[in-house]
UniProtKB/TrEMBL annotation:
Bias (Basic and acidic residues) ranges: 165-179
Name this protein carries in UniProt: Uncharacterized protein
UniProt organism field: Candidatus Magnetobacterium bavaricum
Lineage, broadest ranks: Bacteria, Pseudomonadati, Nitrospirota, Thermodesulfovibrionia, Thermodesulfovibrionales
Highest taxon of source: Bacteria
Composition-biased stretches (Basic residues): 193-207
Residue ranges of the region described as Disordered: 165-216
Length: 216
């Protein structure tokens, strides 16, 4: 199977997991997040390493999904493995660094599999920065997950969203997708999102500044 096929499977599973978590079906949600993480890892493994932007997005997605599945040691291991890869895109390296800090903080205070879904995220403190990434591949633009990660989805979790631009550095405007693409945090996990410097601009375009998600 291709990167796109695995990637889209991951997106669908993560969407279903979000529905389950909102319905308080916590075991089912974690199982679906785990399956989504496995599909995203398969997507990474099927990818040409020369596609640095796509690779970076998939790697961060996989780590984020393992985190959401409460498989913290797995998320930690995967993040450390890819941080050793010297050709990893800078934006992905920055995100993995911050994800790893959050994951390791959770591991210090929680068991590998907490009894209550989201407990670890409550104990994790600090902000996670989501920097801008440039997306140029037509293959990437065909993927629903990358389309849905565009926009100002409030309270989105580590399964990262994107404010992205085209490769020629001109801002690439996309419609504001909501709903299935917004992988939101639970009420306990989410505290607030620090507004970007351009959030008040009337003509909303993809911001060049980073976004932050803060946790209790």
């Amino acid at each position: 199977m291709s990167w796109l096929e695995h990637h889209d499977r991951s997106w669908k599973l993560a969407s279903d997991a979000e529905v389950m978590s909102r319905q308080n079906q916590l075991d089912s949600a974690r199982e679906l997040y785990m399956r989504a993480a496995k599909e995203e890892e398969l997507a990474v493994n099927s990818l040409d390493l020369s596609k640095s932007r796509t690779l970076g997005i998939s790697v961060v997605s996989a780590v984020s999904l393992w985190y959401k599945a409460a498989r913290y040691k797995k998320a930690q291991q995967l993040a450390k493995t890819w941080l050793k890869y010297t050709a990893l895109a800078a934006f992905a390296r920055e995100e993995l660094d911050e994800l790893l800090q959050a994951i390791e903080q959770v591991i210090e205070t929680d068991d590998e599999e907490p009894q209550e879904f989201g407990v670890s995220c409550i104990r994790a403190t600090g902000c996670i920065k989501i920097p801008v990434a440039d997306i140029s591949s037509e293959m990437q633009k065909q993927s629903p997950i990358l389309s849905y990660f565009q926009g100002d989805a409030t309270g989105q979790n580590f399964h990262h969203r994107r404010h992205y631009r085209s490769a020629d550095k001109k801002e690439h405007q996309q419609p504001d997708h909501k709903g299935a693409g917004a992988f939101k945090l639970s009420d306990n996990e989410y505290l607030h999102k620090k507004p970007s410097a351009r959030s008040g601009v009337k003509n909303k375009r993809s911001p060049k500044t980073s976004s932050y998600f803060c946790f209790r």
